[in-house]
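Researcher: Batch entry, complex prediction.
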Amino acid sequence: MLSMRDVSKIYRTDTIETHALRKFSLSVDEGEFVSVTGPSGSGKTTFLNIAGLLEESTSGIYELDGRDVSGLNDAERSRLRNEKIGFIFQSFNLIPELDVFDNVDVPLRYRSFDAAERKKRIDRVLDIVGLASRNKHLPSQLSGGQQQRVAIARALAGEPRFLLADEPTGNLDSHMADSVMELLTEINTQGTTIIMVTHEPALADRARRNIHVLDGQVSNGDSDIHLASQTA
Amino acid sequence: MFRYYLKLGLFSIRKNPMLSFLMVAAIAVGIGACMTIVNVDYVMSGNPIPHRSDLLYHVQVDSWDTNDAYQEPDLPPEQLTYQDGNALWQANAARRQTLSYKATRVVQPGTQGERPFRALTRSTTGDFFAMFDTPFIYGGGWDRSADLNEEYVVVIDREVNDRVFGGADSVGESLVLNGKAYSVTGVIDTWEPLPKYYDVNNGPFDESEDVYIPFSVSIANEIDSSGNTSCWKPSEGGWDGRLASECIWVQLWVELQGENEKLDYLAFLEGYVESQKAVGRFGRPMNNRINDVMEWMEYQEVVAEDVNVLLGIAIMFLVVCLLNTISLLLAKVARRSGDISLRRALGASRRAVFAQYIVEAGMIGAVGGIFGVGMTWLGLQGIRGLYGELDFIARLVAMDWPIIIMAVGLAIISALAAALYPTWRACRVHPASQLKAL
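Model: Structure tokens for the complex:
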């Protein structure tokens, strides 16, 4: 479903060249729940950005659903992002002036769905995250955990192939974090692939598979890690 | 999506009220300044009779001093001598022709208690009304026989009719002008062509006349012109001397249809000038001209040069306001880069972001345009306040719907133009750039 082979990402300025990813290889199968851990600056977020088509790699091959996405133009990348990928961010990234319904509606607006279809999807995902009754609330009227649930609903509304979560519980207390993790686990058991970046080993352990990133490379080599170079 | 973008634009304006207000204010002030001058220019340069302007021709022949052109470079006089005007009118060589000059008469109302009053008068011929399409509320003009027979007939405007006849149908009634009784043949509704194209020599923005009497009657009664008169050599004394002089003070307009009639009339003029050369007049080279209404407005430079300079300055001012708008929009884009980044991450293409911000800019432009109309009105009132003692100013500062629509349209177009660069910048916001920072 997701396959990266020898993906590198180099950030260049006039004087400095930073290798964020070095020949990074990984494959993730459908239905997996993969946690990505590693110290700050190890390349976790860069991996997530490239996986989510938010950034382009400098070199290497990235295949999404068997399609090489390296050479796609902006419109095609935007469409793929919208249709296949759901994002969950550490700081929720809700739009403060939009209510819950309209926040969840954002990715659907770029999808040419009619109003009835959008409403059906929004109602369904808000029901899943347990916020159906709060759809007219503004983000500021919700707790942190509820805001993250709205963000998860937004990520799910487009019925993506996989969710990319960047520290999804980083801004939550332990009780709320637990609740969000339960929700993600439930979503995963229903078939949605999840890749989650986290600092916390306890949360990483709740994923079915964990990979550790160090200096822009996958560092742990146990048999559960599907390094593309090994399977190729 | 358009409605969605409108909704987002509204949210954005509410979210950044001060920035939005400054942008609207910049556009409104720029549009107000620009449209104030455009309005004056528009009124000055408008076509006063669009449905007939290419049929009506002002006639010039060069009867001026052999040794000295009327106006360099070798331009013929703007008016005609009485003898030339009358001869050309008598020849009846066009479909219609009207000879006229500006005069003043005193109306002596028959009703008790009503005091005599001065009335702007046009001494003219019967075709005047059909050629210039004057709107009658009662009756009509007079025919050529009335001119030839020096009949005492008169056409009055609504104001005189209201004052003397209480607004009733006065056709057939008698109106006394300077002691002479004239029979009313028609009453003209309010009619203020702007510019007053048929007599730009005597004030292109002056009011139209109150009273119209036959040219022949005016001549017979020795009614002198109250308009501009220019002479290049002394005339004999008395009224007959005036009529036989080389002084120019009458205007001739003819109605011609198509190129052939135009060429025929020019040939006729040439023949007339040749005949005058044969009797010792017209010492200058052949220099006859006929100009249609808009050509004549341009020839006479009805739109003053300083108005064009002011227009240029006003446009520059609008550009400065738009530059301010650009910087404000850039500030807004910078503030909202997080929102843009998020939308891009959630699937918005660059095109979608562009559309969103252009729609928002259009909304700001529209609001700026509406306020700009108000600023234009204020600007025009300022002009009226400064030059209110001049009658024609009041006519230049009137706004009409085309100007209002133009103001709003120009504001929207200006805002869209100003938004192009900031919107392009918005499109370049990287989808991943702000997500961590939010």
